[in-house]
Amino acid sequence: MTRATVRAAVPGTREAKLVSYARLAKLDVFDYYLSLPVVLSAVLPPIGGFDPRTLVTLGLFGLGAVLMTASLVAFDDLTGYRDGSDTANYRADPTLRRARRKPLVAGTLTEPEVVRFGWLTAFAGAGVFAVAVATAPYAPQWTVWLIVANFVFGIQYSYGLKISYHGFQEAYIAALGWVMVLAPYGLLTGRFDGFVLVQALLFGLGPLLFGVYSNTNDIAGDRSVGRPTVAALTTPRGNRRFVAALSLGEFLLGAAASATGVAPWWFVLLMLPVTVLRARQFGIGFGPRGDILRARAIGFTAHRVGAALLVTANLIAAVTP
């Protein structure tokens, strides 16, 4: 099946450019940006008086993250289109709604338009991040370096160095979530906190635990272009064990934090709804029916529930001894 065939099979591919650019930026996938309310809930309670710089810095960091992510996914789509992996991944059913989310595959944007958009959002994101650091109440060096490293590697996720094509895809998906919590927290407080670290690690596992289901669905396309995801490199049994280990590790991280006093004793209990969703997600994705895309959708729900529970945990911790 050619790219032209995929385009022809996707209904309603003619649409306004603004809509196509929004699809390219994946603005409807807000899951990484849920770090902002998590961080806000972690920094507001201990503050005696309201500091307007808190919201200004957090808002600027969030805008920078949106722009950087838009650049990342634009270049990712560009590379996936050029090497044919996106077309291959939609071969089985090109009429799926998700095919419209790839404007290059659907033919609603051209390669030059995507390249310009990728660089424009990258430079804009860098500028906004710089302003966020300059206006932040604190700017410890570890926080600044986290932001810089995340930006540099993010732009080269599938472009330039193409780190996701050299075995680091899963690591970066999780690391982006970790930075999205730790960096703004550092800018707002100037300190490093063990409980916030646990929250950052759990938050980063959220996108990873719907990303690995996407990779499972995209094995054929990724193998065809040599993209070394765990799903593409290992056997179905090995991939199933990898996803199971991540799902169990998420629970064990919260349990260990509660057991050691890094988190409140009740934290692991509060997060149990996420554990239940993970068990359901795994059963649907790797059970007898093997409905990977439905399991992936449950992953979004689990992550969003988890973010809400992290906010709840911070608010409870603020009012209890």
Structural class: mainly alpha
Gyration radius over CA? 20 Å
Strand % is under 5%
What is the terminal-to-terminal distance?
A: 62 Å
Q: Number of helical runs?
A: 16
Low-confidence stretches: 8-12
Into which percent range does the helicity of residues fall? Answer: over 70%
Strand count = 0
Quaternary organisation of the protein chains: single chain
Shape: globular
Order of helices and strands: HHHHHHHHHHHHHHHH
Task: Please indicate the count of domains.
Answer: 2
**How much is the average pLDDT?**
89
Specify the biggest β-sheet: none
Give a concise summary.
It contains 16 helices and no strands. With 321 residues, the chain is mainly α.
Account of the protein in words:
One of its GO terms (biological process) is vitamin K biosynthetic process. This is 1,4-dihydroxy-2-naphthoate prenyltransferase. It is found in: Membrane. It is a multi-pass membrane protein. The chain is mainly alpha-helical. Helix 3 packs parallel to helix 16 and helix 15 runs antiparallel to helix 16. It is globular, with a radius of gyration of 20 Å. It has 2 domains: 178 residues, no CATH class; 129 residues, Four Helix Bundle (Hemerythrin (Met), subunit A) (Up-down Bundle), CATH 1.20.120. The protein contains 16 helices and no strands. The termini are far apart.
Blueprint (SSEs and pairs):
Elements: H1 3-9, H2 17-25, H3 35-43, H4 52-82, H5 85-89, H6 103-106, H7 111-135, H8 141-155, H9 169-189, H10 194-217, H11 219-224, H12 230-233, H13 236-260, H14 267-270, H15 272-286, H16 292-319
Helix pairs in contact: 3-9, 3-16, 4-7, 4-9, 7-8, 8-9, 9-10, 10-13, 10-16, 13-15, 15-16
